[in-house]
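Aim 2 progress update. The chain analyzed this quarter is reproduced below.
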Amino acid sequence: MGRSDLSLQEVSDRLGVHYMTAYRYVRLGLLPATKQGSSWSITEADLRDFASSARGPRGDRRKGAPWAERLEARLVAGDLTGSWRVVEAAMGGGLSASGVYTELVAAAMRSIGRRWATGELDIADEHRASAVAAKLIGRLGHGMVRRGRPKGTIVIGTAAGERHGLVVSMAADLLRACGFEVVDLGCDLPAAAFAAATATTDGVVAVAVSATTAGGEVAAAETIASVKRARPDVPVFAGGEMVPDAAAASTLGADGWAASIDGFATALGLPAG
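Predicted structure tokens:
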């Protein structure tokens, strides 16, 4: 710890709060801190910024809170408890479970992916963050199912070679929140298996194929073609990082582009909410 750094006890003394309250600020990502061994250190500048922002009305602080950045820090650290506390704090400030997916988890994981691509993070950091994010989704997913008669069944997954199952899991839950039944096939599925699963599923109103890895377009196109041969009556949509617009989706052979979950529902002629 540098000479100008403060311990957690010193921070709690300066803020006039209990030690565990100061610790909670750190675990929520509200107060930046660096862990060295078993101790936390906080810079004078970060404490001043925190103390200044904490003077505003509670509602204002939560509305403008950089939750995605705070979650990202906890994910990179592999801190499941701290990550969940950030999610709880954001939801306590009014963010919905769907918002946690789109505004927090997705945003944090995109940033982590970019940092890994530039060499700022190691592949182990990215995997550790993904593992924690998957646990968050597992915890939130049970509350995403809407009651009532489903709008139909959607089969969703990725083509062979695609390893980003987290994206599919989030999309599946968001579709459930829109009132659909969802068959989540996960990632890295051969085209024939994807088509067979679609053909044997009742009530399918659409199929969604996600492509997020560079170079995976060929496999995605093969999967889309295979699904369309098996179920020519069902529209197939493409989405993901490698499918930036409707033209790209059409190039892959898809019938439509899943730009967003709401857009997906609208394209099917169904209300999004």
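The first strand starts at residue 6 and ends at 7. The domain at 62-144 is CATH 1.10.1240.10 (Methyltransferase, Methionine Synthase (B12-binding Domains); Chain A, domain 1). These observations will guide the mutagenesis experiments scheduled for the next reporting period.
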